[in-house]
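Colleagues,

Please find the record for the two-part complex below.
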Amino acid sequence: MRDLCKAAVDAALGAGATYADARAVVRRSQAVSTKNGRVENVTDLETEGIGVRVLVGGAWGFSCDRRLDADGARDAALRACAFALAAAGSREKALAPAPASSGTYRTPVEKDPFEVSLSEKVDLCVRAEEALRHPDVKVTEAFVRAQREHKVLVTSDGAEIEQELVETGGGIDALAASDGGFQMRSYPSAHGGSSAQGGWEYVENLGLEREAPRVAEQAAALLRADVCPPGMTTVVIDAEQMELQVHESVGHPIELDRVYGSEASYAGTSFLKAGDLGSLRYGSDKMNITADSTTPGGLGTFGFDDEGVPARREPIVVEGVLRNFLTSRETAETLGAGQGGSMRADGWNRMPLIRMTNLHLEPGEGSFDDLLADVDDGIYLETNKSWSIDDKRLNFQFGTQIAWEIKNGKLGRMLRDATYTGITPEFWGSLDAVAGPEAWHMQGLTNCGKGQPGQGAHVSHGSSPCRFRGVQVGVKA
Amino acid sequence: MSDDAREIAARALKAVDGGDAEAHVLCERSGLARFASSEVHQPTLIENCVVTLRVIRDGKIGTSSTNRLDDDGLKLLAQRAAEAADSGVAEEGFPGLPGSMPLPEVEGFDEAVAAIGPEDQARLARAAIDASTTTGQFGFFTSGVTELAIVSSAGVEAHQSMTDATTLVVSADDGASGYATQTSWSSDGVDPAAVGREAAEKAARTRSAKTIEPAPYRAVLEPYAFADLINYFGYDAFGANGLLEERSYLAGRLGEKIMDEKVSIADDALDPRGLPKRFDFEGVPKQRVQLVENGVARGVVWDRTTAARAGDGHETTGHAPPPVYRQYGPLTFALTVDGGEVDSVEELCELVGDGIYVTRLHYLGIVDPREGVITGMTRDGTFRIRDGKIAEPLVNLRFTVSVPQMLEDVPGLGRERKLVNGSDFYGERYPIGTLVPAIATARFNITGVGSEPGL
């Protein structure tokens, strides 16, 4: 693969490119899902190919070929150059300097998930699902996944990098229905469970069977719970929902390509401007956000990004003030700050884009109970159910699967159909407590979308439960 | 396209050693010239061919896919599919693979679109860009050829070549933005300059946007907005899975009047005005399915698996999903809403009198599938309607609506329908779209206000 990438880069330079990079990728993924005692899916998928990105006359071009051979590498390179020439504009692109990195990186794995048989994966799902059985639960689901991506990157400015990234994940869902009502509970997270980089040990440690009875009980109990009342109140939000809150209202706005309008036609732009760096108050002084592509187990962890920039940890928001954006080499050069390091592509047949790596809300202090203790009257919200946010990432509305009222510092009755809404900087400005490191945990999500043609990204977020004052809850149709 | 999907599918099937099997081959050759700030910045050419093999052994089903098309690649594919099948549990009531059925002839392929090459794609993107001399242009032009072949040990031999071309433009600067898009399988429907002009002209009308109080409003939705909303609703409401699992709006409501009698919705992949399909992902012929007729809930779409599970005489309607998305059940990829008797959006505004005008929606989320509640934002052209005319521009608005409630009182629907692209081009290319008119509604619930239009 290394030789093919070199050949592609050479072919591109020979065709007039001033810069070229080539990525050869082989990705294998397995997924097993069961539903109501039936095996819904047992899939074993593999895709491979080479993608070549070029700068010709100051314009980008990208092409790819499924053939991992000399013809495929050369043809992809020449097509990319021809497309760049045809699409050339008037503004020349420049890249921030990058060290000529060479190296390898492999996800540390205790138990290779592809050495675990599909039968064993099916058995785990079946057992977890059986533990979800409950008279009010009409649909039970369990699912596990594994992915291994082997990729080689060669750039014309000297990078030669080989990486193998391994992911595993899983989850369970219980759907309860009665008298026209319908409620759902999930573990460890909604919308596909949770994933991490690592071996099968991650899935085993999720404890899907262990958690299943609680998940089913709560789904059933929600059928009889009261609706979350509307109003402005104090909310305490669990770590998992906070992770999506970080993703949507911090992670996307700090992508510098969005700030510059590159995503205006699809994912949207950002309320942040380049000039906000170092001065914009994003939230209260309790808010500390870090981008970290070195976090063990994070889905955004790597040795090098898809431009060959080494992984690192950097502060994004410090005590409520914006300190960095997520950058590519091109946007960092335009900004005159940063050095790239956030570029990732969804496989061999997509261009790298700025994507979140692992973006964390740093822990504060105290326990979950301490958060509740300072609430006379409020709502505790747990596990995402729905999400929506505007194109500038300002106005958001989230729903959670379950909620409880908080009275005099203690959890009270269970509530269903809870939603909350806000405006990003105002909401983060109302953050008055973040629980400590003991309550901090990380989830990995696999459904982040961006780009045209669309690209999925896998990212992780860590957070502790948080408390916000004066939040609108209970939005109704 | 250099690869022959039928030949690849036949070779994949031949590689299977024992059991029933079905091979799907999806080949794509496409180009997408994406632009921002009136410059092409992400031009992407894709050539790929993915073969997916579904093997059934002793009632157990396994699926594997690859894009390695040589004999070794297909042999490995067959081994993995067989291992996957052997790892499963026999599915009680699995109806088996379908046999060969006569397939309808449909349109959906145009040599002129197939002939659009990278230089043309860049030129057509430039035409969309050059249509604005004021606001910046953001969007893309894309065209592609997709070939789908399905062969099976039960005798299915299905094949279709499809073309599609889409232009999408957001025309914007600080404080202004407009939107337009156009999709067609035919070169007759490819006019990027017109799309660019429509977006720029809309943007010019959005400066100095005002805010309004959250409340229910009467509203006119352009086809772009209505298509998004009906697609999200349909994802949960119009598939058999949601019905069988009692979690969709239509569960328990079939035969009931759920919408205004002016509203009729179908899934119709045979309509040449859409993006026509001959067969589903089991090789079963596509059927037109009436979902809502004159406001009455009539049915959902089925594949053979869900029809067998229902066990009450239901039959497939030709809506099996791709094998790797089997867990989602049958899906509506070709929703159509009947047009009405109103000649223009201006006349729809007259019917509304006082309300809001919505061009496009953004980032929809399903809040409550059982009640069809969806939230999202308006974007790229939201206006006040006063005295029956489009008036001042508005900031982006958050809405939270029950779609059936929104469609309970419909003052009118546009006579003309527009095909709205339904693909964001994730994964392999498979063109889908929604054919809808503009619509006036008596209730569109605004629950929050957002930022000004523009960058």
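The longest strand of chain A covers residues 38-56.

Comments are welcome before we finalize the supplementary table.
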